[in-house]
Amino acid sequence: MWTPTTRRQHSRARLRYETDLTDGEWAVIAPLMPEPASRGRPPIWTMREVLNAIFYVLRGGIAWRLIPKDLPPRSTTFGYFSRWRDEGLFGRINHTLVMADRERAGREASPTAAVLDSQSVKTTESGGPRGYDAGKKVKGRKRQALVDTDGRALVLDPQAADVQDRDGARPVLRLSRRTFPFIAKAFADAGYAGDRPATATVITIDIVRKPKDQVGFAVHPRRWVVERFFGWISRNRRLWKDPEATLASAQAFLYAAAVMILVRRLGRAS
């Protein structure tokens, strides 16, 4: 619970940048980072500083060339980011931290229920796959998110915005079988109704519909946790729009945002 005492205890004001990893947070993520190369020139910058730079770009929404001089230069930072993106490192770290945080909360490491929803965002002139979401009147991309019932990210998949939810759900549900095979039920809105999501996997799709007499905004059971997750990651200005030229980079930043949430939570707990 956040109180004046706990806010002072976990204040980040003493850090160089608000996105810098504390000692406790680095202790959480350090064992999950790849080992330095055994050949070639020894690295000048530590993995901790490279992560600090990536998180700085993510939270600030800046271009790589605008990274401050006391952080690794853009060539180093983007080079590591590209390598980790292609290796799927952020997704693997998120998977491990999700299980650790669930166990910390007294739950089973692998969830049996999940919540599915999407978020449509505009893209920039960077190019890459995009489309037009006629329902939300957004030209850009759609972020499909499968989270557990507490809002932890399980599977994140960026797609063109013109992909219907019932079609975009299929790859997300199928991907979840590799990393979280015990999911038996997923809660979703009416956009996921139909045979395609229902027959994609053995996961049962439970449609949570709006009350017939609803007027204005209302919190819907189960579904609200995924909306909260979108609110959490939207604190990162890099995600206000999707400026990435590739879906792989867009997915890597989504998982990096999820990792930042879990690292801070586990770092405070330790």
Automatic annotation (TrEMBL):
Where the record annotates domain Insertion element IS402-like, the positions are: 21-93
Q: Which residues form a coiled coil?
A: none
Q: Which NCBIfam families match?
A: transpos_IS5_3
The record's section on PANTHER family has: PHP DOMAIN PROTEIN, TRANSPOSASE
Protein name per Swiss-Prot or TrEMBL: IS5 family transposase ISMex40
Chain segments carrying region Disordered = 108-139
Q: Where is the Transposase IS4-like domain?
A: 111-261
What is the native source organism of this protein? Methylobacterium cerastii
Question: Which superkingdom heads the taxonomic lineage of this protein's source?
Answer: Bacteria
